[in-house]
Amino acid sequence: MRRWLTxxxxxxxxxxxxxxxxxxxxxxxxxxxxxxxxxxxGKYKEAAIMYRSALKRDMKYGEAYYRLxxxxxxxxxxxxxxxxxxxxxxxxxxxxxxKAKLADLYLSAYMANPxxxxxxxxxxxxxxxxxxKRDPKSFDGLRLLGYLAWRDRNxxxxxxxxxxxxxxxxxxxxxxxALSQVLAENNxxxxxxxxxxxxxxxxxxxxxxxxxxxxxYARQNRLADADAxxxxxxxxxxxxxxxxxxxxxxxxxxxxxxEAAEVMNRMVASPKDFPWRFKELGEFYAQFRExxxxxxxxxxxxxxxxxDDRLLYHRRIADLMIAxxxxxxxxxxxxxxxxxxxxxxxxxxxxxxxxxxxxxxxQVQTAISDLQASVGQMPQNPVLRFNLGRAHWxxxxxxxxxxxxxxxxxxxxxxxxxxxxxxxIALNRSEWAVALxxxxxxxxxxPDNLQAHLLRGSALLGMGKxxxxxxxxTALVKSDPSSxxxxxxxxxxxxxxxxxxxxxxxxxxxxxxxxxxMRCTLGLVESYAARKQFDKAFQVMSAAVQKSPQEQSLxxxxxxxxxxxxxxxxxxxxxxELLKREPKSSDLAIRLGETYRRMGNTSExxxxxxxxxxxxxxxxxxxxxxxxxxxxxxxxxxxxxVYEQVLKLQPDNPVALNNLAYLIAELGGDLDLALTYAxxxxxxxxxxxxxxxxxxxxxxxxxxxxxxxxxxKDLVAQQPGNATFRYHLGMALFQKxxxxxxxxxxQAALKSSPSKDEEGKIRELLARIx
Length: 770
Description:
- This protein is an all-alpha fold.
- It is 79% helix and 0% strand.
- Helix 38 (654-667) packs antiparallel against helix 39.
């Protein structure tokens, strides 16, 4: 009987325990208690999981939000922490620490944003006032109001608030730091200085207070005191390498390089205290552009550590070679280092970046492969994403490039390079509004960004807003008269508006040996050539080439000018010389082939177009010139094969779709397939008259005369003097049975100067109409 009763009691206890664990109020508290234990042991990720589990039981549990915010602060997740504290404040009106933490996060974001968002300011102010309202002696509320008053340059009020905060919590290091600085700004330098010195006595390891005094002494030109405070910082913290470097930098910048070297060498003498001493020394000299000395220290570091340490030194040596402009040497160094670290994502990315900078088109695919491997290892790295986008862009894979640039921006919204790239792509595609929006977004983050202003000016120009574009670019030149880039774009704008004299004057102002200056030289030459002033153009180009004989862009410009001027032999000679230097350059092979084509030497043109295609078989740009010349020489089937290769690489390439559709129609192939191609091309290029002509021609071939007439009436309305469009409209009308209207269109076509071949066909059709 007792056993049976015991069993009942045990079962009841188990049921009670089970029902208790199912109670959401009990469960959420248990989760928070467990999370707190993890937090105390420094296991912040595990603690965060517990707090989230509590929130799954009760989405209005303020304590869990507060604790989650504390975890996210420890995990360096400020955005997520702000969200958690915001919710905690909403649910726990008495939680002053949550308000203070939230206000601090907002204050950091506010100070980091050069636009100083008003809404953030108001949020901080509201939180601070709420804290003081609950407790007039609130330390957090008073210090926050002090920071806001300081930001508003109300120094007297700032001093009052900070002093009140100091009474509430005596000698808090952050408040004393701020108070000493505000006193100095309020012409109470001695009082502020004495306060800072008292803090140093109490908090010898608080670095910012030394820095505040150093800035004050430097502004007052008190060099001896500046020396002393830097030395004191090191004496009080002898094992802090950052402080040693600061003292050495001070000596270096005051022309005491031997003293700087002596200070830095302290680390070499204490290898146990400074295991990264060679890295510190290398970085120190690198910042002052003493690259050889920096590299020598990094090379010493190669022998001082393990395998991973050596990798870091290898990377820095390569970085400094690049900083010196020695990209070929850096590429060789990286290739050699990859033999020891073949799968290192950083080295692969560096090799890829160098390939993009110094390699030709044939190296772009290697760069893409390297970067894809690196991104696979570090998918959250925005710089790798950006460089992968650059590689796709160089290969002509614009959509893939945009995807990578967009992901880089998503990973790091303040990363300007991918934003600028997206804006440039939009500009290249004549998507003026998109380009303008992108440039404006960059300028919001960085108001003085030169490239963003240039993109904005170009976008405004594309939108036909010439006055605004000119104002934008002129303002750039006024703000920085030495800006070659701004002058170059201003000259390009004048050139596009056919304001040749203004363009020439502008280009002449920015010609020098810099890359932008050389582009100005080419712009001036282009302006002369546009007015058929080839003698002047050759004179400028010859002088530039003579001054910089090794500069390939200038020699290439000379060859291009020769082609424009009809001096094809000169162009051929230069292109062949350049091709000997870069035998794997598909671009040079294309240029040489095009020159031969203009000379009427189609056999040689085909030779070089084929060579370009063999050098870069995966680049659609090498297929088109070959396909066009094959078509022009009657080799239609082979031309079609080339276009089909393009569509294998880029299934939606509108040029290949259009041209292949036309060839199929002309050669009597599958008209349904050709119509599909033409319709896809039309979707991609809805404004292209040539694509519309191909589509209309296919409608005629398929006896869809009504559809063809609709297309050709629109084309004739846009270009009434185009003989081909009138001829095709006449054919469509004749096909429909409207002979009188067809005859009128054909007669109008004859008056529009058709080609001899087309004229014969028009007269033949008129004879049939009678």
